[in-house]
Amino acid sequence: MKVHVQFFSRLRELAGVSEMELELPNGATAADLLELLYARTPALRDWDKSILLAAGVEFVGRDYVLQPADQISIMPPVQGG
User: Fold this and answer.
1) Is the domain 2-75 a CATH 3.10.20.30 member?
2) Longest dimension (CA), the chain
3) pLDDT-above-90 percentage for the chain
C-alpha cells in the first residue's frame, strides 16, 4: 500500500524533502514506517524518542496500523511560548 509522508521543521531538513510516497506492506504500523525512514535517512533516528506522528489530523501512536492512502505527518516535539 502507498502512504504519503510529510516532514515538518528540522525533520524536513534532515530528510531533505518535505514529503514523499512510500510503499509498505498491508498491516504495517507507524513503527514499521519509522524503521523504513531510518534506514533511508539514518539522521532521523537521532530524533526517535521525540518524534510525533499524526494520521490526517489525529496524533497516533507507533502501534497505529497504516491504512492505504494515509497522510502521515512526522513532526518534532511541539513547543510553545
Assistant:
1) yes
2) 40
3) 93
The DSSP string of 38-59 is: HHH-GGGGGGTTT-EEEETTEE
Q: Which strands form 19-23's sheet, in the order they lie side by side?
A: 19-23, 2-7, 71-75, 52-55, 58-60
Residue 29 near residue 64, CB atoms below 8 Å: yes
Cell of 14: 534532515
Whole-number mean pLDDT of the chain? Answer: 93
**Extents of the domains making up the chain:** 2-75
Do residues 33 and 70 make contact, with C-beta atoms less than 8 angstroms apart? Answer: no
